[in-house]
Amino acid sequence: AFASSASALFQTVLTPYVAFFVVDAGVCKDLASPGYYAAYLTSAEHVGRVATSYAWGRYSDLRGRAQVMEQALLVIAVGSLVLGWTLDFRVAVATRFLMGCFDSTWSMCKAYAGSQFRDAPRAQARAMASLGASYGLAMLVGPAMGGLLARPAEEYPALGLRETSLLARRPYLLPNVMCALFATVAWTATRRVLRDREKLPMKAPPHGVVKEVVVPEQQQQ
Fold this sequence. Notes:
- The chain is mainly α.
- The protein is 72% helix and 3% strand.
- The protein has 11 helices and 2 strands, in the order ααααααααααββα.
- It has helices at residues 2-12, 18-24, 35-63, 65-85, 89-102, 105-116, 121-149, 152-155, 166-169, 173-197, 217-220, and strands spanning 199-201, 212-214.
- A two-stranded antiparallel sheet has the order 1-2.
- The longest helix is centred in the N-terminal third of the chain and has 29 residues, at 35-63.
- The protein is elongated, with a radius of gyration of 20 Å.
- Residues 202-215 have low confidence and may be disordered.
């Protein structure tokens, strides 16, 4: 649930301020015409995900869903910090694209729940429901967090932030730092809880039948 929520947060946190970012990046002069460029920035992550989702699925069959989720969460954490720091439009688009290329978290979460609770239909149903609920909640929290925390110097003049202060020079740092922190917490939980419990599939035989075995902790390390 933490992993899927981290993915949803980074996807949606820029929604409220994406037009302001395009203007601050110097691509547009005012808020009358940023939509065209905002679409590039918003969709770059999804393009990357479409390009690599199948490959990550095949890779996870060999190395495990938890390991793929750990890699994705690390990329989300680092990429969020880059997005919060940069005011370069090209860097932001490239970062979002790379984050999408490595972010297979949502599909890995569902695959993990399906394989771990295959023999317990009720537990599987509860796991899927909790994933959907946490993902949906994060989709609500992400835009709210982006809208409340972005551009604090302009939105909250009572704070008295100087033009030379860090949050004034990097107006989108704060919401992205929160995304990075949440992704780090999710990475820690995934590494400590999920990896030791995961059932890794054996290499598929010629007829494509996949068998599952429980790999001892020492072999996984």
